[in-house]
Amino acid sequence: MLGILSAGIAPGLALLSYFYLKDQYDSEPVYTVFKTFLFGALLVFPIAFIQHVLETENMIESSFINAFLSSATLEEFFKWFILFYTIYQHVDFDEPYDGIVYGAAVSLGFATLENIFYLITYGLEHAIGRALLPVSSHALFGVIMGYYIGKGKFSATSKYKWIILSLLFPIILHGTYDFILITQKNWQFVMFPFMTFLWWLGLRKVKKGRELSAQHFRNQLDF
User: What is its main location (predicted)?
Assistant: First the structure.
């Protein structure tokens, strides 16, 4: 059991540490980041209940609905809700890159607990595959969500546009990820280029988030 817990937790904490340490200015309080991580983990229970109801009531009639509604929209909306309504106005959210840290935290909290339950059910031999695909993809969905949340909070104009994109883009990417898994027989051949693109996009948002934070602090110095 200790091995499963370690294998289930390690990828999420490693990825969260990576994005956390990329914050080059004012690092976020560990307590606030960890609290956001826990909020994300707790989302597993209501989301799993809703998905169970949708499945037992035969409300999922196609692969597209399964991928983009039951999974992507449901999971990303709840993560976005936590990020927007508990972190967006928080005093510690004081630079654009912070959105990436908190977005990764809430997503990886969800992915970590989900990963632990999966490994308990199906075995430790799935740990590497889970770390490379579901855990890392959730992290990158969170990074992209957090980037646009941060951009929206600190933009002088078009705030609502960036906030909407912070929910819309992760849903599209998450739905595409699940749709590949559900519909492609040899999904590995499609998933590899998709994950390569997702990592490229996520790391690009990390770079741009750091640039936005640098500009934010330069503007503060000008005043």
Answer: membrane
